[in-house]
Amino acid sequence: PPINQQQVEEGNLWRSDCRVKGGSPGFKVAILGAAGGIGQPLAMLMKMNPLVSVLHLYDVVNSPGVTADISHMDTAAVVRGFLGQNRLEEALTGMDLVIIPAGVPRKPGMTRDDLFNINAGIVKTISEGIAKCCPKAIVNLISNPVNSTVPIAAEVFKKAGTYDPRRLLGVTMLDVVRANTFVAEVLGLDPREVSVPVVGGHAGVTILPLLSQVKPACSFTKEETEYLTSRIQNGGTEVVEAKAGAGSATLSMAYAAVKFADACLRGLRGDAGVIECAFVTELPFFASRVRLGRSGVEEIYPLGPLNEYERSVKRSVWRRQRRSWVEALIRVCPSQ
Ligand code: NAD
Ligand code: LMR
């Protein structure tokens, strides 16, 4: 039968199956902000993920073109597009995993906190949609400032009575990806062999790479430690400055987001031993090493032995994070 333009822009025309061939369960994943700098490569990479059976691409602009484009890839996931706020609920209904890169990025000279006013509103609206349409979904929140947008989402879910700290995760995987890369450079290793836990938050000094816990076991000189800590903490700014006004990290972020989303999906599938760093809202410490399972975060690991520098950063992260939480509460529940 002939197809019309609307069918092309909204995605797959004939297939409605939600199972990946071969018997393994496929998951339904929504990307909100799918037409953006992160959203587009993220959509492409998620379309290539064999664990995804249905991929919903939502944005307030340009999602029809991205949907038409991505839907031509000959991989299993069924792709559907949703344009505009009045389609948000449809985009979210039935989703297992919701990935959120919606929001404005930094320009040179800005901090991530400068994005709070705009992005807090965007995340609040999206979180209200999630609470209503897919309260059991795992949420991967990328929009900055992560230190504040995750508390905003938590407060919206609490207000709606759907809050489950196991399912709300701020994505700090890019810090880990950078740490693995920079540490591997210093050690002269393949980055795929290196694992650096990064804890704390996702802004400047709150990004705390635990260089004392790098695998494979190694040690660094004082100069190496200072160089690595500073480079990892300022990786985002390095990209913002190199892009000179054209935005922040998008490609490495899409890569990191897919790595993290894939870990969440493997956890949902019931795979054992899926351990990553993520920003969580339960104690003990914001971005932490966590074990992912069928219900999201199933275990939060203690930080392990810290050196004096790491202990002092820990104290300042706590102070900053308390402020972010109060701001989030005021934003979501101004009367409290
Ligand atoms: P971008 O401007 O290229 O794309 C953002 C997209 O969000 C746009 O397509 C825009 O239309 C869409 N959008 C805006 N309002 C929306 C709404 N209400 N609902 C749905 N979509 C909406 O920006 P980008 O480079 O993709 O970055 C997105 C966000 O991710 C920024 O806040 C950035 O700071 C953040 N970021 C986080 C990390 C991290 O490590 N967590 C890394 C890089 C970027
Ligand atoms: C990053 O770390 O690259 C992101 O948080 C984007 C930014 O503004 O630095």
Number of strands: 11
Which runs of at least 5 residues are low in confidence (pLDDT < 50)? 16-24
What's the total helix number? 11
Mean pLDDT: 92
| SSE succession | HEHEHEHEHEHEHEEHHHEEEH
Measured distance between first and last alpha carbons = 57 Å
What helical percentage do the residues reach?
Answer: 40-55%
- How would a textbook summarize the main sheet? 6 strands, parallel
| Spatial sequence of strands, sheet with the most strands | 3-2-1-4-5-6
Choose one word for the global shape: globular
Give the names of the bound compounds.
nicotinamide-adenine-dinucleotide, (2S)-2-hydroxybutanedioic acid
GO biological process, one term: malate metabolic process
Keywords: Glyoxylate bypass, NAD, Oxidoreductase, Peroxisome, Tricarboxylic acid cycle
Family: Belongs to the LDH/MDH superfamily. MDH type 1 family.
GO molecular function: L-malate dehydrogenase (NAD+) activity
Structure description:
- 42% of the residues lie in helices and 16% in strands.
- It is globular.
- Strand 9 (274-279) and strand 10 (287-293) form a beta hairpin.
- The chain starts with a helix and ends with a helix.
- It has 336 residues and is α/β, with parallel strands linked by helices.
- Helix 5 packs parallel to helix 6 (146-160) and helix 7 (173-187) packs antiparallel against helix 8.
